[in-house]
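fold-stage: in
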Amino acid sequence: MSIHPTTPRPRVRRVAPLAACLLAALPLGTRAEDSDATKKNRTDLEKVAVTAHLLDEATTGTKIELPVLQTAQAISVVPRELIQEQGALRIGEALRNVAGVSRSDVYGFFDGFNIRGFDASSGATYLDGLRTSDTMATSELSGLERLEVVKGPASGLYGQGPLSGLVNMVSKRPTAQRFATLDLGLGTDAYREARLDANTPLDAAGHWLGRANLVWRDQDFFVDSSGARRTYLAPSLSWKPDADTTLTLLGTWQHDRLRPWSPTVAYGSILYNPNGRIPRHRAINDRDYPATQMRDLRMGGWMFDHRFNDVFAIHQGVRYEDFHNTWDHWLFASGIRDDMRTVDRFYYGPYDEHGHNLRVDTSLSADFATGELRHLVLAGLDYGHRQSTNTNNFDFGPYPYDIYAPQYGIVPAPRVLAVTRSLTDSRQSGLYLQDHLQWGDHWTMTLGGRFDRARDGHGATQVKTSAFSPRAGVTYALSDGAALYANWSKSFNPQGNYQRFDGGNLPPERGEDIEAGIKLARPDGSLRGMFTVFQLTRQNMATEDFLHPNFYVVTGEQRSRGVEAELAWQPVEAFTFSAAYAYTQAKITHDNTLPVGARLAGIPRHNLNLWGRYTVQGGVLAGFGAGLGLNYQSERLASNYEPLDPVYGRPFVMKAYVLVDAALYYDDGPWSVRLNLKNAFDRRYFVTTSSSRTNWGTPRSLMLNLERRF
């Protein structure tokens, strides 16, 4: 069956950042002379955005707007509605809804996640299609329209990055509606929050639109003497002089004052300790001199789109970040003594980092036909430069501490001051080209590649890397609501921190992805789904040089294979349901240090997330609703460096767990109330672990939010 009568014509624009803006803002901003048919299509599109929780159209994977059935890559979307329903405050919570994503949180405090069995915590977080600095921070979800997750390599369009994929955060943008939403929240652990989302046209013609998101949040964490206070402001301004031109200015100011917590030791938490179990709330840091962190972030930039005619269009995205990050009094466990109660600690701080991050992406797109082939061609150039200076002090201690009978006020400052100063400087420029071809009623093909030059360091220590990253994908439409797809792509990631014995630097790590599957997308948006089979291979990985200690060679290899399934279903208006399941078999296939054939640590074989919501539509209970969710993680290997625990010699694993979340809702005109209960049965579980860095999962918590719409 032909896909053309029901599939919207792909629109040549550009990049992930404005996907939500174009879907939401442009239709609402059209003028009064729009036809009735256009208004009907707009209404249908808005309904799809609400009902399809996981798999909506996104441009992150192709940098042009394509129907989901013509996108030859696994891309998942977590919209704002679902984030709000579940009361998610952290990226890791929201990404539970995506098959193949699991948490990775080494410090126990900052954003971290795995995609398809490989860590994506560093270099894989983007905002509006532009890479963020994402160091020692947590992203604010309140200012986002949605999260887009690209699984597998994105180097063919975005350059250097992990093989696993990327997460793109899409900012809220101005719309043609006038509204204001005030949200107040209270909860366990002294959680308090106030949020304001205000939007208005600034002139009668609708050429100027403004929006601002403001967040104030203060909360403790379940670990003693830890917490966070955040002030966040994200203003945006759109100028639309005509139907072919849009310029949106985006800004962010964020100030965090934190008391971070540190991982505990394994013995007494996840492993047996003859002295008993360590309480979840027990801190490694000194209670009287708690760890402190200050982070200031200022960002400004723009998204510009202009269509010259029916063939050519241009897009440019620009963002400049200025960040300042400091911390002190941060203690970490370095091991436990033979008495199994005295923990040695090292002191991290004072630390001070100040830097900037500039990102520019400019692309030209063309929509034309050659005979029976329709082309959507994209050519672009992007540039990134991140530079920072930092001063750091590290004191090995050992700062002993009886974790069962702690004494506080004994570590007011480091004993040893050995401050180091350093400058980090990294640049990347890339040229990319992509052609999306469509022929007949069923076939599309996407071919592309990118050439990159990357530079890390400065002066004599500078490391230069270049790489070409190809990608190819094909789709075949089975019907108006189903399509088969297959994809092949490669990634690269520089390894400038590793040196060879001969004085040279290692070539970049390379990765390869092969995947195929089927996508479902009913035209009315009531059913979206995806089933994927994949294989990722990391090659050229740095591993120790046996002949020359402290030097490296590129003989390491890791592989991840699996299947993923996602479903978003709304059979009736009152009920929505989403499911995400992944089976992931990730292992070491070659290494000079780690055991070949071993599973990769922290990666569950089975990962399942379910969420459903029912809302009463009529009668005296109209407006009342309830939500229920389940998250299952199967058993995981604790550490590839500690397959057996160092004391008892037993297999060191994290047991499987099931978390149950629940929610109650009530909507009455402009008022809404939401009550979220997380980890309802207070399950004790662990996110990551090793003998000296074990992170408890969050205990049961309750959060109440009152919303007023104006």
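fold-stage: in (second)
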Amino acid sequence: MIRPLLLGLILCTCPKPVWASRLDPATGRLQPSQGALHHGLDSTDPNDGIRVRVYDRTLAATEPEILSEADALEGGGAYLLGGTRPLMIADLRTTTPDLGGRRIELRFWLKPMGASAVAFIGWFAGDQDAVWEELALSSNQQMALARLLRSGRVTSDGWIEYTTGPIDYLLGGRLRPSLILQQDNQDLHQQSVVDPEARFAIDGFEVVDLGAAAVPDAACRKPNEATVCGTEGVCYMGRCADHAAVNGPVFTKTEQRRDYVERRKFEMRVYAGHQGLRANLGAFEATVDAAVIGSARRFWPDLRAAWYALGDGHGSPPLAAYTTPPQLGLCLVHGEADLLPGQPRVPLVFSEAFLHPIAGETRVGDAVVAIDGLSPEQWRALLPERLRYNGDPANRAYVEGLQLARVAMLTGAELEFARCPGPKACTEEEVESFFVDTAQWLAPFWDGGVESWHRTGTPCDGRFSRINEGPNVFADTHAATEVRRGATILEINATPAAFQGNVAAWTATVDAALSSGPARLIIDERVGKGGGFDAVDRILAYLRPASSMPGQFLMPWVGDLETLQLFEDMRACAETYPGSAAFLWCGGSRWEPARLGHPNPGGAENSRTAVLTGLDVSGNDFLTLGLARRPGPTRIFGPGPTAGAYGMIMSVPRHDVGLVGGSLQATDGAVLETLADPLDARLSGPGVPPDEVVLQRQSDALEGVDTLMEAAHDWLAQ
């Protein structure tokens, strides 16, 4: 007889973790613990306060398909998901008895049948019924979302147990876990072909009471995290929260952590193509090996810190949890507070979100002089795994400064601002000081509410002004041009490839700015997200002599390429397949603008050119390098070097752990005049340094003046 899934809610008052169920070796069936309170769900109707709902690929609620009792792991059946039913949500907000103030472990069993799943435990503020009824997330603030990991228990016929590990039921001592999501690995948004027979089964769902909560119900700051939050807590949005909810659940066995780390080390050894990255592999392996036997609380943060220390501008660490705090409403940028005594280099307010209450307390030009009572540099040193930066370390202060608004909300920090009305510099007595306590603004979220401003952010590219404003000025394909003070300005973000959108409009703007060979030129790179070589070459071909146009060459990691026949084979192959096909067929790439139909090679080779940099990576790295090496008069202005990511990014798999597997640079790069040139100029970082290090100034902020742009105009006028 086919019956619905039996969901077991097992509650005990045991002070120590115990297996809440056991596998009977005689029958192969999963059995709940003896004497445990057991609630079964033999239909899709709500039962004992636990609701379960299945959704189809249009995200509409639907009836579940049921695996037969004979094939189930326990009870009278199991849910059969995947295919046309990719998503299941279990509502855990109400339990009997109440688990508030308790430490729990949540487990379920999954059997892949052509597909698998990911599962999360999540805490949300806002209208949870709207999520349940309509999957409406716009009115909710995601407070924490952590993926379940394998427990290590499996059966001979393919059932795999997943677990949260020990974790406090309440997040921050306040919020109940709202949802468990189990999502088919097949794409939810119908961008891939779905195999309706590729499914997975879910069975043996249970929650175990492990005793009193391990994390104090307390307010905190990052500097006092260890003393206030204890060994299991982290300071999160101003309150102590379980590290497993914020950073991701930790493997229950050291052997599992070691196996996971060995997989990541193997990927680095085999696929990493960045020379600087490979030089740092020894330190990387030592750090992740230490994380295996170190504190469980530090496992995921230590892994993130190891990735960030690699110096791989294309690298990103694996993540086992999502943390998306409400918006601060400010764009903070590392700048020069030239109106304050001592002219410190600290984060400055560059822009504010309209109608955001925190932004209403500040003004453009205000300086952040302390965070949680520490200098910004001291405070940043407490958060090596939260401030994301892998590129050239010489630009770390600037790039990390752009993240302080997000991380201040992430930790619930108190910011001390200093204001000088200007236009003259202030004395100590004239400086106005005030505080913004983000923890106070976050307090309503911990009570379950959602403030209307929680998603009211302001885009931030580290500059004061643009040629024009609009909804697409931060897009990869944004490009604009105008003539100002006798100089033609070309403003771009990325160097977009064809897959990134309307490249034709970007190319037309580039041609309009450069085709006439302006005497004075400013190339203003804003959010340098990279892209493709075709766009790089579109600009460089104008600015270099037509007879001297280098090509960019990418290659996989195969050892000492100068002495290997494999490289010679790739070199010969690329000569046969010029253009983008070389990348696909030869393992290398060479782009020649003349062969790509460039309208006017060398048309701006004599233009006096100022280059403004900021957040430049990948394709923008190559562009800035090509501009720096051009024979014509060129000067680069920026806060620091580009990232130094000369290669191709590659995503790596999750290995059934976490939310994303991360990424690394899979190729090395070179810029060659011809493919016969030696590779002694092989590129592996560092980034391209500016000829003039220029930070935006506080005095300019008050006047609405872009400091980098003014420096460029001054040089062009010489």
